[in-house]
Amino acid sequence: MRKRKQIGLRAMSTILAAVLLMAGMSTANLPIRDMSVSAKTLAELQDERQANEAKIAEKQKKLDSLQSNMNENEQYQKTLKEKIALQQENLDIVSEELKRIGTSISETEDAIAQAEDDITVMEADIAIGLDEFKMRLRAMYVQGNDSLASALVGATDFYDLLSKYELMSRVANHDNDLVNTLKDKLETCNEKKAQLEKQQESLSKQQSDQQAKKDEFSAALMDLQDTYSETSDAQEQMEREKESLNADVSTLEKQNAELDAEEAEIKAAIAKAAEEQKRKEEEARKQKEAAEAAAAAQRQQEAQQQQQQ
What sign for the dihedral angle of Cα 213, 214, 217, 219? Predict the structure, then answer.
């Protein structure tokens, strides 16, 4: 009876030790499997983050190139502004010159009109003087030399004769002087008119030249303004592209931050699982030692009992 009881105790000790060993092995294997899954997920996260960092580097490269282009474009726009300002100054100068020439042409036209009026008056005076002179000559011709002879014969003495002859000569000379004076004035007016017309022609040529310059400057200014408008459109396009790239970079950085947070959680979980596995391994070790000690004690007890028998 006692022998059967000893066999039963020994069997129970063996079963207990086996159960403890299996329990320790089971708890030790489970965290290892979980850690393997977590490590694989962590590797995938790291790959995804590296891919994002590569995309960020690529977009940053584009941003740097774009910023360089924008800086060059801004410098080009600055130069264009300076050229536009200078061209506008040239255009203002030409416009002012055209205004001055226009005023001179208007004044010259008025002077020509006045000269033409003066010439008309002088021509009328000359015509009147000539008509009067012709009438006197016609009267003297009709009267013949008798009238002149009678006037001279009627002189009382030589001095009277000289005085009458001198008087008649003065009348004739007065008419000649009047006609000559009017003719001189007419020639002067004609010369002045010719000079004014030549001046007007010169002013008209200057006006034409200045107008051509104005048209040239206006066309150049328009081209500069069109170019500046194009650079402004290009600058706006680059600004939009820059905003888009910055938004992409922000999105990728946000994704990386989320991946970092998730990676940190996974690492924390791995560390916690490792700690838990260590604790379970330690517990299993202790259970194993306890089982082995119990089995040794059982064997010692059985040996003592056998010796007593």
Answer: negative
Tokens of 59: 């977009």
Tokens of 266: 């996974």
pLDDT along the chain (309 residues), means of 10: 40 42 40 43 82 88 90 90 90 90 89 85 74 63 51 51 54 64 77 87 89 89 90 90 91 89 85 90 89 83 78
CATH number of the CATH domain containing 283: 1.10.287
Residue 252 · residue 56 · CB < 8 Å: yes
CA separation for the pair 229, 217 (Å, rounded): 18
User: 103: closest CA among 194, 210, 189, 192?
Assistant: 210
Residue whose structure tokens are 């039963």? 8
Q: Give the chain's domain count.
A: 1
Tokens of 23: 């329990």
Which pair of tokens denotes residue 212? 């051509």
User: Which tokens hold the place of 44?
Assistant: 């995938």
Cβ-based burial of 33 (10 A; exposed 0-12, middle 13-18, buried ≥19): exposed
What per-residue confidence (pLDDT) applies to 177?
72
Tell me the CA distances in angstroms from 220 to 78, 84, 207, 213, 227, one per residue in order: 17, 9, 20, 10, 10
As a whole number of angstroms, the distance between CA 262 and CA 255 comes to 10
State the pTM of this model.
0.51
Residue owning tokens 């000269």: 115
Q: What is the pLDDT of residue 9?
A: 39
- Would you say 3 and 305 are in contact if contact means Cβ atoms under 8 Å apart? no
- Give the per-residue pLDDT at 171: 54
The whole-angstrom separation of Cα 200 and Cα 209 is 14
pLDDT of residue 34: 43
Determine phi and psi for 6, rounding to 5 degrees: -65, -40
Q: Which DSSP string corresponds to 242-272? A: HHHHHHHHHHHHHHHHHHHHHHHHHHHHHHH
